[in-house]
Amino acid sequence: MIALMKRQSFSGALTFGIAAGAMVLTSCSTIESRISENPEFYRNLSSRDQALVNQGQIRYGMSRNAVWLAWGSPDSKVIGNMRGHSTETWIYVHYATYPYYPYYGPYGPGFGFFGDPFYDPFYYSLIPPSIPYPYKTVTFSNGRVVSFQYLVPS
Hints:
The protein has helices at 2-27, 31-37, 39-43, 47-54, 64-71; strands at residues 76-82, 85-97, 130-141, 144-150. By secondary structure, it is α+β, with helices and mostly antiparallel strands. It has one domain. A 4-stranded antiparallel beta sheet has the order 1-2-3-4, with no helix packed on it. It is globular.
């Protein structure tokens, strides 16, 4: 019975993993693909901004289109107000995946506070849990960049 449950969980996780991978691969865009799909956005940029876009970089005062070409579509948008002017902040998210180790507690499996293999959805999963975190933000006012931040790899 348990072997059947493991096989069904494995099969379901494998199917989900393949579907998720296909979605990620088909929805990815690159700087080159965004430029080729929207050449007029790129042509309307100054040579300085074209060079920055090609490197995936942005600057203060850049237009929304230039940022979109350089960084792509944001994962979420936040509307706000800065010094009496309306703003829009784009948030880009990365996902960190950490190894997962089930916890059995001092009395063996089934007596732990968390990680019980019969109740833990990640125990039999091939897909480890991932934690989202914002790694880039850019704020626009009147269609121009007024602020941006990004995490520098350490």
